[in-house]
């Protein structure tokens, strides 16, 4: 029987070095996510108005960048497993700057698409999966707390950069805004990764047991396939709803700046949700976490479907809920298994998505929105710890890259698909109910995401 637990690791970085690495990654993830990802939904309407390009065509360029990020993440994970994060994350930061300059100066759609393609390759090297792999190896047995802190910080990306982006575009135009953001990205992330990620890269942790986990066997297993499908469907339901929030608010008569502020408050909510992850993880299994969170995602997404005049309040509530959710993750993880977590979280995702489509009062919407935010806050940590919960940390970078690729792809499709689904069904309410149904399916599949040798575990070993 294979045991995914690992022998205690001897850190090659002392306490000061570990704190430096964590602080640097917190800063660079806030900056990278805020500029490369969250600035776009704020600027997309302005880009369309200025250039005459249709919004679906513009969003498709961004979706292309996410596809590029997903495919880039696979070799990046392998590189980090072998050599560490410093070189690849620095290279990604260096590439991101000229990519944004191309986007800002694009005179036509082919150039605009080329800029986003390059930006997507950069994202695959600098966003969450590489940072997760770095902390998982460097922190050894303390990786869960480090990941929680990182995701708490990254949750501030939209809080900081959505309002900043809106203020810049109000004062200048979208092209100048991207030039300013590219300068910020260059000043913070390039030296941050080059100088802040110094330190010897530890050898892979040694699994306990006679039969170490083989990454090829793990990646071809039914449990891995179930995990990928469950997380992909759950991410699609969650991100299709979140990404379309700004266009929805503008459609309902809210100003772009208020819509951006609402998106930013959602980031603050993610912080609260991630703060709660440690206690949740300490008290739940991986199976429980994924099932509950995906079911809750379904419920919250459905309820958001009828949020029209109260949309701004919903955005605030979602943000607050995400913060609360992450705050509660540690006790959940401590008391549940990996199977329980994924099934319950996915089931909760489905329930909340459905409820968002049928809620009719402001109070009900706010309540459900808080729950939806809480669920999404935990979902990030469910994904970050999924590999280690099931197969240990030995091949984390490689397996996480393989797992994350399809998840990032569906996240790339979510903005366009959510808009198309709303147009096809005739209303956001109907679209959110369909998204809720997908999250229900994800929750059911999540129950099968635990490898055979882990199915009798009462709780995770995190």
From TrEMBL:
A Gene Ontology molecular function term of the record: transmembrane transporter activity
CC annotations in GO: plasma membrane
Residue ranges constituting the Major facilitator superfamily (MFS) profile domain according to the UniProt record: 18-454
The keyword DNA-binding is assigned to this record: no
Segments crossing the lipid bilayer: 21-40, 52-76, 88-107, 113-135, 147-166, 178-197, 224-246, 258-278, 290-307, 313-330, 342-359, 365-387, 399-417, 429-450
Descriptive protein name: MFS transporter
Keywords, ordered alphabetically: Membrane, Transmembrane, Transmembrane helix, Transport
Species in which this protein is naturally found: Rhodococcus wratislaviensis (Tsukamurella wratislaviensis)
Subcellular localization, as worded in the UniProt entry: Cell membrane
Membrane topology: Multi-pass membrane protein
InterPro entries registered for this protein in UniProt: MFS, MFS_dom, MFS_Riboflavin_Transporter, MFS_trans_sf
């Amino acid at each position: 029987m294979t045991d995914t637990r690992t022998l205690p690791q001897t850190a090659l970085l002392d306490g000061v070095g570990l704190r430096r690495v964590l602080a640097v990654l917190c800063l660079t993830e806030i900056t990278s996510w805020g500029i490369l990802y969250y600035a776009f939904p704020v600027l997309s309407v302005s880009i369309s108005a200025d250039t005459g390009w249709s919004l679906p065509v513009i969003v498709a360029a961004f979706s292309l960048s996410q596809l590029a990020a997903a495919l880039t993440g696979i070799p990046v994970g392998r590189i980090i497993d072998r050599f560490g994060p410093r070189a690849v994350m620095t290279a990604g930061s260096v590439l991101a700057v000229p990519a944004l300059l191309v986007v800002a100066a694009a005179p036509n759609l082919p150039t605009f698409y080329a800029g986003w393609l390059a930006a997507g390759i950069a994202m695959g090297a600098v966003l969450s999966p590489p940072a997760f792999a770095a902390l998982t190896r460097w922190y050894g047995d303390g990786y869960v707390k480090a990941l929680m802190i990182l995701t708490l910080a990254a949750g501030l990306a939209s809080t900081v950069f959505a309002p900043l982006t809106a203020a810049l575009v109000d004062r200048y135009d979208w092209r100048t805004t991207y030039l300013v953001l590219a300068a910020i990205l260059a000043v913070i992330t390039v030296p941050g990764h080059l100088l802040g990620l110094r330190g010897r890269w530890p050898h892979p942790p040694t699994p306990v047991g006679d039969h170490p986990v083989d990454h090829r066997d793990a990646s071809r297993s039914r449990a891995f396939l179930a995990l990928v499908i469950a997380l992909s469907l759950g991410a699609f339901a969650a991100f299709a709803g979140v990404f379309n929030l700004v266009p929805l608010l503008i459609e309902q008569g809210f100003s772009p700046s208020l819509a951006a502020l609402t998106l930013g408050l959602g980031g603050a909510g993610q912080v609260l949700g991630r703060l709660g992850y440690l206690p949740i993880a300490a008290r739940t299994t991986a199976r429980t976490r994924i099932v509950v969170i995906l079911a809750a995602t379904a419920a919250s997404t459905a309820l958001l479907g009828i949020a029209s005049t109260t949309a701004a309040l919903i955005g605030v509530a979602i943000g607050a809920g995400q913060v609360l959710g992450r705050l509660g993750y540690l006790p959940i993880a401590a008391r549940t298994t990996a199977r329980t977590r994924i099934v319950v979280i996915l089931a909760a995702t489905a329930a909340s998505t459905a409820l968002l489509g049928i809620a009719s009062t402001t109070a009900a919407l706010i309540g459900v929105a808080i729950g939806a935010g809480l669920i999404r806050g935990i979902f990030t940590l469910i994904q970050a710890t999924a590999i280690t919960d099931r197969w240990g940390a030995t091949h984390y970078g490689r397996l996480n890259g393989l797992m994350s690729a399809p998840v990032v792809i569906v996240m790339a499709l979510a903005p366009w698909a959510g808009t198309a689904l709303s147009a096809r069904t005739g209303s956001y309410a109907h679209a959110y109910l369909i998204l809720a149904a997908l999250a229900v399916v994800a929750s059911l599949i999540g129950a099968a995401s635990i490898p055979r040798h882990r199915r009798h575990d009462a709780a995770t070993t995190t």
